[in-house]
Design brief:
The chain has three domains: about 45 residues, no CATH class; about 210 residues, 3-hydroxy-3-methylglutaryl-coenzyme A Reductase, Chain A, domain 2 (Alpha-Beta Complex), CATH 3.90.770.10; about 90 residues, Hydroxymethylglutaryl-CoA reductase, class I/II, NAD/NADP-binding domain (Alpha-Beta Plaits, 2-Layer Sandwich), CATH 3.30.70. About 40% of the residues lie in helices and about 20% in strands. The longest helix has 24 residues.
Length: about 400
């Protein structure tokens, strides 16, 4: 027997009544009680553009890590960091790293690049026509830029990178997108730019597609690591040897030795990250703050670097080359997500780089805490104490 069609209402689909009707349909067909998913404070009328067929909520536990002390260009001072997770030990670990870095004077953060992409492909009769097209694109950049930016108030076309293979040529359009993550914005702008290009009838053009996987949307890639997607942000700190011993019960020498082993392990495994668990902190903040969680696929890649100084202090940095975040638009304006952003002063216009810096600092704290737990043999015991909810 086939399952019944879920009810829809063209005039009032975003309502408590329609959400209840869909839950009732699912319950009748599956015998699954939807008691908790049906309890929420969000007005369904706020949700057009965020979800279709709204039926309820999935509640994820949320806590505050910190406070974290950040010395950034956009984030300055102490912050509580909202993190939504079902993994025990996570907030305790991040808070421990935040205590260490706070007592060391805070995490220094810098946003060093900003670009969101769409990468259409142009296929030509032969490689020579494709090469000549590339020269033509460079010569007509101003016209292409004007066509793209006519579709958006906040997006700006920064440049167009070109990548060739045989008779194929990808154009990687790099946009700045203001306070939005910007994927939809740049798709629309790039489409308009490409329609202008196509109207010029490039000689020898055989085929065009707005996307052919080179922008690597919702997946990481080497090109993102090298050339940035979203925000490229660095968090760094120098930790005094005495403080490492007092708070983490380890030393800079032990952390540096473990760093070399972790670098080799990541290299042998072909990992896109030589760190421990960027994804844990990024995902937890993304869920609490209304980010597109699928962007963790790109945002969790990164680079860790450590240096043991002559006096025993330890310099440590994390670089996130593709952190895709927003302080406006998408899910950021939903009630609980907006509240979490407002806790950090990161909701609305002009706040996206501040959010990026806080997330990068949070990642650094999590990396230091987990690395210290591993080298001091506290990793398993802490999970056993805080991460078990079974008798």
């Amino acid at each position: 027997m086939s399952l019944p069609k879920l009810p829809r209402d063209k005039t009032s689909d975003y309502s408590h009544a329609m959400a209840q009707a869909r839950r009732d349909t699912v319950t009748a067909a599956t015998n699954a009680a939807l008691t908790h998913t049906g309890q929420f404070s969000i007005d369904p009328a706020l949700l057009p553009g965020n979800i279709e067929g709204f039926s309820g909520v999935v509640q994820v536990p949320m806590g505050f890590a910190g406070p974290i002390l950040v010395d950034g260009e956009h984030a300055q001072g102490e912050f509580y960091v909202p993190m939504a997770t079902t993994e025990g030990t996570l907030l305790a670990s991040y808070s421990r790293g935040m205590r260490l870095t706070r007592e060391a004077g805070g995490v220094r953060t810098t946003v060093i690049d900003d670009a969101m992409q769409r990468a259409p492909i142009f296929v030509f009769d032969d490689a020579r026509r494709a090469r000549d097209f590339g020269h033509w694109v460079s010569a007509h950049f101003a016209d292409i830029k004007a066509a793209a930016e006519a579709t958006t108030r906040s997006g700006q076309l920064r440049d167009i990178q070109q990548f060739a293979q045989g008779k194929l040529r990808w154009l990687r359009f790099n946009f700045t997108t203001g306070d939005a993550a910007g994927q939809n914005m740049v798709s629309k702008a790039t489409h308009a730019a490409c329609q202008w290009i196509l109207a010029q009838q490039p000689p020898g053009l055989a085929h065009f597609s707005l996307a052919a996987n080179f922008d690597t949307d919702k997946k990481h890639s080497t090109v993102n690591s090298l050339h940035t997607r979203g925000k490229r942000v660095v968090a760094e700190i120098t930790l005094p040897a005495k403080l490492l011993q007092e708070v983490m019960h380890t030393s800079g020498e032990a952390l540096f030795k473990q760093r070399q082993l972790s670098n080799m392990g990541a290299m042998m495994a072909g990992s896109v990250n030589n760190g421990a668990h960027f994804a844990n902190g990024i995902t937890a903040v993304f869920m609490a703050c209304g980010q597109d969680v699928a962007n963790v696929a790109e945002s969790s890649a990164g680079f860790v670097h450590g240096e043991l100084l002559a006096n025993g202090d330890y310099y440590f940095s994390v670089t996130i080359p593709a952190l895709i975040v927003a302080s406006y638009g998408g899910g950021t304006g939903l009630p609980t997500q907006r509240e979490c952003l407002e806790v950090m002063g990161c909701y609305g216009a002009g706040k996206v780089n501040k959010l990026a810096e806080i997330i990068a600092a949070t990642v650094l704290c999590g990396e230091l805490s987990l690395a210290s737990a591993i080298v001091s043999d506290q990793w398993v015991s802490s999970h056993d104490a805080l991460g078990r909810n079974r008798p």
